[in-house]
Structures are given as C-alpha cells and as structure tokens.
Design goal:
Distance between the termini: 31 Å
CATH class: Alpha Beta
Number of domains: 1
Radius of gyration: 15 Å
Oligomer: single chain
Strand order of the largest sheet: 1-2-3-6-7
Helix content: 25-40%
Order of helices and strands: HEEEEEEEHHH
Strand content: 25-35%
Bound molecules: nickel (II) ion
C-alpha cells in the first residue's frame, strides 16, 4: 500500500464528474488499498477517488470502526434531516455545518463487482453523502451553511 497525494480545493479535478468503474482488476484493488492508507495517514473518515486524482466512481468510508468500500455508489433512498459540522481532506482545516439526510440507503458494488445495498444513519449516512458528492464534482463548502464565513476567511471554491 502506498499513500497518494490528496488533491486540494482550487484544482479543477475536484469539479469533474467521475466515470463508472468497469474493470474489477488489480489496478482497482491497488487504488483502493492506496486510498485506505491515504485516508488513514490523513486521519480522514472518508475519501473519494477524485481526491487522489482519479476520476472514477469509488469511495471509501470509515465510521464507527466500520470500513466500507463503495464502487459505483447510488443513493437510492433517503429520509430525515440532520445538521452537523463537516470537514474535508481536500479543504484543509475549515469545518462548517451541512444539512444531510439522517438516513440513506446506497446501492454499490464491491471490489469484485458484486452488488450490495447498505443502509446507514447519522454519521455513516453523512459520510457516504459527502463522498458521493465528490464523484459529482460537489464539495461540502458548496452546501455549507457557513459558506460566507469560509469565503470571508479567503477559502477557495
Ligand atoms: Ni471530502
């Protein structure tokens, strides 16, 4: 496993739409392993492939000591609302409040291409929503209730 460089806000890669994964091969597994070590090295709760410069629909999350790999994820159900402070490895130290669904169900495939669905609440739901947004070029600062504070302190979009 190798640690990869995290792309920072201001880089246009973070604003692009990622493409679905079609090949479930060693290249994918290496990327997933590298993403895991990169997330751990940066003390993150989640990481999306575009954050390491790869425009593929791949995210990993680690919430409540549960590590999950989601490939080609789609949020298929959501309910409720929840507001908490979020941060992002691509944004630096800024934290701000974001409204997310309280509960979501996501469909995805695993690293071998087998489909599954997962239902999560609160932080797991939040983390998955945040990472899936990355695959669509969306950053939490776009949705942040404290966006004006972020901009005032010179934050990039
Ligand atoms: Ni992020």
């Amino acid at each position: 496993m190798a640690t990869r460089k995290v792309v920072l806000v201001g880089d246009e890669i973070l604003r692009k739409i990622s493409k679905p994964v079609k090949d479930f091969d060693e290249g994918l597994w290496q990327l997933l392993d590298d993403m895991k070590s990169t997330m751990a090295a940066n003390d993150g709760m989640g990481l999306a492939a575009p954050q390491v410069g790869v425009l593929r629909r791949i995210v990993i999350v680690e919430v409540n000591n549960m590590f999950i790999e989601l490939i080609n994820p789609e949020i298929i159900e959501q309910e409720g609302k929840d507001v908490e402070q979020e941060g992002c490895l691509s944004v630096g130290t800024f934290r701000g409040r974001v409204e997310r669904p309280y509960k979501i169900t996501v469909s995805a495939v695993d690293r071998f291409g087998y489909p599954f669905t997962l239902t999560g609440e609160k932080w797991l739901a939040r983390c998955i929503c945040h990472e899936v947004d990355h695959l669509n070029g969306i950053l939490f600062i776009d949705k942040c209730l404290d966006k004006s504070k972020y901009l005032k302190q010179g934050g990039k979009i």
